[in-house]
Design a protein that fits this description.
With 107 residues, this protein is mainly alpha-helical. 87% of the residues lie in helices and 0% in strands.
């Protein structure tokens, strides 16, 4: 903040006050800038945190369904394998019984 030469104080106390005010102005500007930077950093951190939380919630929402589907699919596959194995055993038992009936002849 520069003053015109004609607006300079004529007494020593006013000159000292003006010098102190001139020295304080940059420090105040730095303090304001530092506060603005802190608010900006805080806002950026909050944005990053919220993005992370949203991603976690999306994974929880969609991931759990996906995992549940995977578990259900695995369970259904196991049931299918059990049914196929059981059917194969039943077929073998039926073939064995038919072979024994054929070997023993008609009654």
């Amino acid at each position: 903040m520069k003053s015109a030469p004609d607006s300079l104080p004529s007494d020593l106390a006013s000159a000292h006050a003006m010098i102190l005010a001139e020295r304080a102005a940059p420090m105040q500007a730095e303090a304001v800038a530092a506060r603005a930077q802190a608010v900006s950093s805080s806002t950026e951190a909050l944005i990053a945190y919220l993005k992370l939380e949203i991603e976690k919630l999306r994974r929880e929402l969609y991931g759990s369904r996906s995992e549940r589907k995977e578990r259900l699919l695995a369970q259904m596959e196991l049931q299918l394998e059990d049914l196929e194995a059981s059917a194969t055993e039943d077929e073998l038992a039926a073939e064995k019984a038919a072979a024994q009936e054929t070997a023993s002849g008609p009654a």
